[in-house]
């Protein structure tokens, strides 16, 4: 299967992008694996004719918006992000009417329609920088209340969060942290900023997924408790084999991220389906918010 995929990839001038939460065999077949910001930057610079996006729907939409001249495929067409579905463009328009002096920052984990209604996008790795880059003192932050709460720790701006959340990170509890520390007392605890505030308070560090990998590989420490979706442990083992990483919660599994497999990647490349297409009027407006994010350094 791997040989067939590589052959098709060469025939069709395709590249495979995979999120850090994908299953091991999909990460291994990918040309590039990363977090949402890294994947967005990569999608904006590719020369390939076809992008096979191993992730969830909003990620493929973002790639299609940034590369409108390319065929963007989502092998698992049913892989969605529940948090992205927690706010609609209509609900955001109501918020904008209620707070006309506020800038809208939308997490990249949103639909194209929501991005089109936003001033700028952000990811978990650059959310603080994005908020601080704005002139407005009041920020409508959608949809993740936990990431919004995390940003407010580092900003004097008024953050108006939506009540969305990532079910994988939101269900991690302080008790999970305490139990993990008891099992591995020498390990450093790293958590994702989508976690609840009371979990973040107990952690040693807060990072995006790729930020966690960089920290683990560069840290003098030898043991780490990883507070995010467990798919990341595969990449950590590959890139930092001398370190030992434990999941903060064995239940931290995103079922949608696990819907992609090698068979779906093969069929997607063979038939060039399912293709993700964003209507031009929405894509043009959403692109401005994404590009503005990519320009923040």
TrEMBL record:
Pathway: Cofactor biosynthesis; NAD(+) biosynthesis; quinolinate from iminoaspartate: step 1/1
UniProt organism field: Methanolobus halotolerans
GO cellular component: cytoplasm
Protein name per its UniProtKB record: Quinolinate synthase
Residues engaged in binding iminosuccinate: 19, 36, 107-109, 124, 192-194, 209
Source organism phylogeny: Archaea, Methanobacteriati, Methanobacteriota, Stenosarchaea group, Methanomicrobia
Encoding gene, per UniProt annotation: nadA
Task of the protein: Catalyzes the condensation of iminoaspartate with dihydroxyacetone phosphate to form quinolinate.
InterPro entries given in the database record: NadA, NadA_sf, Quinolinate_synth_type2
Keyword 4Fe-4S: yes
């Amino acid at each position: 299967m791997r040989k067939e995929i590589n052959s098709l990839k060469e025939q069709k001038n395709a590249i495979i992008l995979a999120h850090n939460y994908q299953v091991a065999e999909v990460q291994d077949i990918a040309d590039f694996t990363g977090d949402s910001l890294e994947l967005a930057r990569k999608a904006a610079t590719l020369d390939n004719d076809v992008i096979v996006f191993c992730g969830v729907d909003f990620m493929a939409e973002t790639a299609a918006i940034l590369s409108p001249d390319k065929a963007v495929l989502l092998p698992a067409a049913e892989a969605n992000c529940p948090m992205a579905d927690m706010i609609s463009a209509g609900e955001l328009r109501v918020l904008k009417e209620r707070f006309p002096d506020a800038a809208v920052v939308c997490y990249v984990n949103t639909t194209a329609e929501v991005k089109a209604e936003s001033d700028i996008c952000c990811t978990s790795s650059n959310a603080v920088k994005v908020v601080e880059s704005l002139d407005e003192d009041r920020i409508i932050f959608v949809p993740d209340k936990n990431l919004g709460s995390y940003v407010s720790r580092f900003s004097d701006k008024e953050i108006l969060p939506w009540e969305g959340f990532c079910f994988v990170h939101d269900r991690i509890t302080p008790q999970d942290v305490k139990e993990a520390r008891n099992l591995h007392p020498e390990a450093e605890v790293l958590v994702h900023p989508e976690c609840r505030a009371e979990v973040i308070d107990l952690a040693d560090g807060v990072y995006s997924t790729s930020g966690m990998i960089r920290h683990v590989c560069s840290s003098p420490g030898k043991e780490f408790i990883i507070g995010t979706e467990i798919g990341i442990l595969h990449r950590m083992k590959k890139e930092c084999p001398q370190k030992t990483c434990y999941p903060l919660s064995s239940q931290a599994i995103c079922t949608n991220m696990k819907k992609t497999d090698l068979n779906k990647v093969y069929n997607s490349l063979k038939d060039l389906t399912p293709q993700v297409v964003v209507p031009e009027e929405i894509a043009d407006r959403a692109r401005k918010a994404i590009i503005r994010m990519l320009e923040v350094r």
